[in-house]
Amino acid sequence: MNKHFIENKSYRCHLEDRIIDKIKISFIGALGILEESGYGIDGQEFLASSKYQINIFSEDKIEGVERADLILVASSNSIERDTALLQTCRKKTEKAIIVLGPDDEDYAADMLYAGADDYLKLPCSKQVLDTVLYVHMRREFR
Question: What pTM was computed for the model?
């Protein structure tokens, strides 16, 4: 596995041969969900990462989420609310949408059917989250 992006701060895109200093992420939901994966209280280590530029949105106000390189959604544990949110996001953008949620197969399947491109059960390690974000960026710039 190529760990260039994970170990370094930039990733050389295969298209347009440009350098991305930080992945722009629209994060929707409660940051506390990142605590489970070791990112500190309310995900502070994730927010302070030199790899990411994070814009935080509430489930009710998602105007502008499409300006990011990808969208990260924290599960609210309500299939109905999360399904509606994913469908709204999918209407706004074709960018990758990754859901962070509980270890529940039915819930994960519902989120993928509703429009998520990927689903990570929590807790997941920092390495797994970083790698999934890297993989989606790699796909974006093929």
Answer: 0.82
